[in-house]
Specification:
The complex is a heterotetramer. Helix content of chain A is 20%, strand content 29%. Chain A is built from seven helices and 15 strands. Chain A is globular. Chain B is α+β, with helices and mostly antiparallel strands. Chain B has two domains: 202 residues, no CATH class; 124 residues, no CATH class. An eight-stranded mixed beta sheet of chain B has the order 3-2-6-7-8-9-1-10, with helices on both faces. In chain B, strands 5-4-12-11 form a four-stranded antiparallel beta sheet, with no helix packed on it. The radius of gyration of chain B is 22 Å and the shape is globular. In chain C, helix 10 packs across helix 12. The N and C termini of chain C lie far apart (43 Å). By secondary structure, chain D is an alpha/beta fold. Chain D folds into two domains: 151 residues, Rossmann fold, CATH 3.40.50.700; 95 residues, no CATH class. In chain D, 35% of the residues lie in helices and 11% in strands. Chain D is globular and about 60 Å long. Chain D starts with a strand and ends in a 19-residue tail after the last helix. The chains are: A alpha/beta, B alpha+beta, C alpha+beta, D alpha/beta. The interface between C and D is large, with 67 and 66 residues. The structure holds flavin-adenine dinucleotide (FAD) and iron/sulfur cluster (3 copies). The site of flavin-adenine dinucleotide has 22 residues of chain A, from strand 4, strand 5 and helix 2.
Amino acid sequence: MLSKQTVKLDPANNPYKPRLARIVSIKPQAPDHKLFQLRFEDRDYAESFCTRPGQFAELSIIGVGECPISISSPPTRKGIVEMCVRRTGRVTNALFDLPTNSMVGLRGPYGNGYPVEDMEGNDLLMIAGGLGMAPLRSLLWYALDNRARFNRVILLYGTRSPEDLLFREEFDDLITRADLECHVTVDKDPTGNWPYNVGVVTSLFDKVDNLNPDTTYAAICGPPVVYKFVIDQLLKLNFSKGRILMSLERMMKCGIGKCLHCSIGHKYTCLDGPIFTYWDAINLRESI
Amino acid sequence: MKSLRMAKRHLPKFLESLGKWGKVYVPVKLGKNSYRWEEFDGEVDNIALDALRTVIPAKKFFYKPREVMFEYDKTNGYTQACAECEEDVILFGIHSCGIHSLETLDNIFAGKYVDNYYFTRRKNITIVGTSCMPDKHCFCKSMGADTVDEGYDIFLTDLGDDFLIGVGSSKGDDIVNDNPDIYEEVDESTTKRYLEFRNKRDESFELVLDTSDLPTILDFQYDNPLWDELGERCLACGSCSMVCPTCYCYNVDDTINLDSETGERWREWDCCLFRDHALVAGGHNFRENQGGRLKHRYLHKQQAYLGDFGRTACVGCGRCIVACPANIDYVECLKAMRGEMTSA
Amino acid sequence: MANRKITVDHLCRVEGHGGVTVELKDGKVDKVQMDIYEAMRYFEHFLKRVPYDQTASIACRICAICSAVHNIVSNQATEDAFGVKCSDQTNLLRRLYVAGGNIESHALHVYLLALPDLMEPRYHSALHMAQDLPDVAKIALDIKKCGNEIQDIVGGREIHACNTKLGGFGRIPKKDELKFLRDRLEKTLENAAATVPIVKGLGIPAYLKSENTYVGLVPYGDKFGYMGDKIAVSDGTVVDVHDYLNVTNEYVVPYCHAKYSAWKDKPFMVGAIARVHLFFDKLHPTAKAVAADIGYKPPIHNSLFNSVAQVVELVDAIADSIDVIDAVLAEYDGSPKDPVVKPKAGKGTAGIEAPRGTLYHSYEYDADGNCVGADIITPTCQNYGNMEKDIREMVDNNPGFSDEDIHFHSEIIVRAYDPCISCSVHVINLDKQ
Amino acid sequence: MAKPSIGVYGLTGCAGCQLNIINCEDELLDIAAAVDIKSFIMAQTGNVECEIDIAFVEGAVSNEKQKKQLLDIRERAGLLVAIGTCASWGGVEAMINDVPREVAKKDVYGDTMKDNPFYDCFNPMPLKDVVKVDFQIVGCPIERPQFIQAVASLLNGNLPLLPTYALCTECKFKENECLLIEQDKFCLGPVTKAGCGARCPSNNIPCEGCRGPVFEANYASEVEIMLEKGYTKEYIAQQMSTFAGTISAEDLGARKLVKTDIP
Ligand SMILES: Cc1cc2nc3c(=O)[nH]c(=O)nc-3n(C[C@H](O)[C@H](O)[C@H](O)COP(=O)(O)OP(=O)(O)OC[C@H]3O[C@@H](n4cnc5c(N)ncnc54)[C@H](O)[C@@H]3O)c2cc1C
Ligand code: SF4
Ligand code: SF4
Ligand code: SF4
């Protein structure tokens, strides 16, 4: 007896099955952060692998385990999947021990990603704190690669100190780019050589003039404190709750809405998120 | 739907013929007051026909407490492992609430990403339901799970000397046709006896939970201190979730062999009352205290799942009430949230 | 000749922590002492406060290798105190369980701990030996495994049973499980037979010649076995197990955390060699045949032959276990009515033959069934005196031995006794006489 | 690559955890082939005490000599793994930690050994009270599959993953009748760490807590339940002290959460 559900059983397509991918390059970023470039072994699959900015994938270190990592590369650049990872525990430790050319498992992409169709034609304000830059980077490059579809593109990025800045090599260019308003800041600058702003990320709001809350989408990603202060600021600027987008982090085991670890109220972070509007989040208790 | 009658003395023959469709599992008694499904040993007397709730519900047939998802090796990656998924099984003695619970699990394991393990078994397992008489912990009626019209291959209703045989699928029909001698047509008295049975059963429910507006009420009661009081008592032992026919969350881990090359990826039933259920790297716990975890379980069943699939993720089997060492009572708690006086 | 002092700091391949010191004065042995520095755990306090239904499960933690016998004898001592009688099936299953412990322990000792010394060349361990002789190691491990399988299925765990209780077992092994064990035992019997040529070829030194006094429990019935309620001494004396203190006569020495024993002021020996000496006639025919094949025929007074006696016992235990399983299956009762266990004030004592010799447990309970006194005497304790005697003799009979020789031979003598040091320091004294 | 070197050590205990390593009959030769066993006094001669990658230490610490030895092992070992309940929680020997050792000594050996320094010892403590412990494999004794899995993980360069939930969960996996609920037995399953496959309840014998507490053991609630069933405070205290350190009848329930940072 099969259920009322119309279920298409396709034994060859087990959604839990990681596909093999190879680490093609490893670029150290900040301390305990590295950028991994991965390519699926199956070239056709690699070309067809299609993501939306803000989606994530489940990365398996063979013999150790699996964990969700945001895809940092934009969908506009096919063939390579980039992931910026912080070393925090079992799986990420093992990943950091792997040399280039090692085989890993990858499945995805999962999650809703940013509602880019809605965002097009609007101003885009991205606010990142620390590792929050990882998912936002895919949105950033999506916007820059499709520059004509957006009006203003603004990026505010803050880290604890200069050495924690991720994608450093890109920022030197980004900051000078004419089609992007890019501001970076550090909480503290022990080196004294930091050429840019010092202060928390909200202090960068002063550098952005004439934000129009009615035509701007704000995408925030960072640790809980960032959400708290940035959202306060945006609300003061009269942003509607539906135009504030946040990316939530949860424990995840399956990534596809089964294991229930990422559920918040009636939402699954993996299926319905990780991108939620602030309005969603208010209605999801425990969300931040 | 096709209905037939079978005299009870034919039960051995009936079970014997079921054997042709796969391994037959029947409820048997263990200990003083507990039951579990075990492979039929050929002795009809060993079947506990009166078993209301087995310790572990039918979900174990479709979704194992611990199962290997993949075997892997470091060169070739992951290979799906689930040979026994393909085994043909006849599940005899599941009740109406159990059949409903399978539907709640179907909803989760289907969808955009189909869980192969679950549905391969689902396809290969034949459901032979039996009727039951509720006890003081059953509240399936309140959860709308006290009767079934579909979801089974065959359903046996106890009418005294006879079983009413409901044939619910083409496979069920094959089973019946295989052994025509033991069945008779329904007759005059069947309707009467059936209604008598139904009425008696309806009247036996002692436990009733009013579910009207419950999701909304639970919203209002979000900060009720009772959650934390219950949290203080909860041992996080996991019993309630393990025995719940609709609890489905799981954990995944990888084990490696001594050769450092090969190993297995497992999944294992998990429970949202465990401390590490919402714990993320760096030690942040999204549900820091036990009261919050308990609330999450209840809200998930009565609010979240309901919102997604239009029915609650509880079928009223009463297992969690029976299995809680701390006497935390699901129904009492929800009644208290409604403001009905109880001793929860 | 100069005075010499030879110290074995840490005896390896024995269970527990201890050493040996030998001092020679003018070429003659002056002092031999066992240095047992295993940390004390003071089981009398554990036991003195525990309720009767806990004594066995705590007492078995005295020692892992002898856990099975500690567990059973502890239950039997408590049953003795309360006047509980067990069913035949329980007694058979206990016999099987104890045999499982014996198979495991003897296989471990003979093949994995003692053999590496007696092989040519010598090995540091069975694992080193396995590199040259993988087949021997595999067979040995498989025999040992069979013993563990019995303990696992009947006792519930390979070490520290969790299926035993006062009056019987928590769960009776299923028929399939018993049949599985029977098949395994058949195979293990073949494996054990395959080791006979190796055992035959061992170069066991012959310098120990003096007569040993042997002590062991008289097995019930006409079969060789490990349970009984009479203690036999090789001089012909028989003592009731309740009077065990008259046999053990314990005393304390300042250099050792264990107590010593003496029979008529002289050391005595317990263990496989003692049992085979005392009850050779009762051995299973298969075991007798193996003994004949090896050429083992009592009386034998060279304590180093204890390991060979263990091989004979190993075969007996395997063959007997097959018979026991057949007997259990013949009158199988899957859900027995266990005897009622009602605590009452009083004392109870039981003895059992552990792999390394006679083990006694004796308890006193108050009316609520709380343990108020306990005495446990382990085989290794009883053997310390004899070990010292043997080491003396080894040195005396080999005037040409260098310090290294004495070091090495002291170790193999001690190892031959299969000492269980952690047991030996957990002696408990109820009536301080 | 050089094989990882290991050492297996025993302090105060019954040697059961070490024995259960030797009891891994099917895997022992593979383990021996995969690592370089520098020291394992119970199993081999020719031991060398040098720098090692992983030390497995059994038993509680109960005298100065052992304390020194443990500090020395810690110095030499990359990772220190506590094996067994004695090493992790103190074990049965810590059951009487409310009684001064002097009293215990007098009781066993009489007055003869009063001033003999050879007999000095202190209340047994788990390893974590003396040194940093990287991982614990609990159990009295440790379970063989868990040990093998831990070794395999460590060889692969990761800390092992062992169950963190309570025994009841495993007991349910086994589909046992609940002894606490259906038979009013004193079962410590709800506060005891799983991993043994619910051995005792599967044999109709209640869990005695030999694996020690879960990360957040709700002792207070367990005590409440047992008092309701009519067990006395003394009985409850005794049962709860058997393996995981002494709890007196007075502090029962005060110890709600047992927390440890060691995985
Ligand atoms: C949607 C999403 C996107 C993420 N993107 C990134 C990213 O781009 N870069 C990055 O470095 N990290 C990211 N994380 C966090 C990352 O998943 C965790 O740091 C990682 O799981 C830690 O695993 P571990 O085994 O190394 O740590 P451990 O602490 O050893 O984790 C143990 C187990 O807990 C689970 N777990 C622990 N923390 C988390 C967590 N935060 N989220 C989900 N599961 C967790 C893992 O599945 C793991 O098996 C993301 C998390 C989510 C949910
Ligand atoms: S929540 Fe309780 S009553 Fe409802 S289905 Fe689950 S176990 Fe049964
Ligand atoms: S059964 Fe009771 S004590 Fe156990 S986790 Fe569930 S609510 Fe908590
Ligand atoms: S028997 Fe013990 S371990 Fe098993 S569920 Fe009941 S309380 Fe938990």
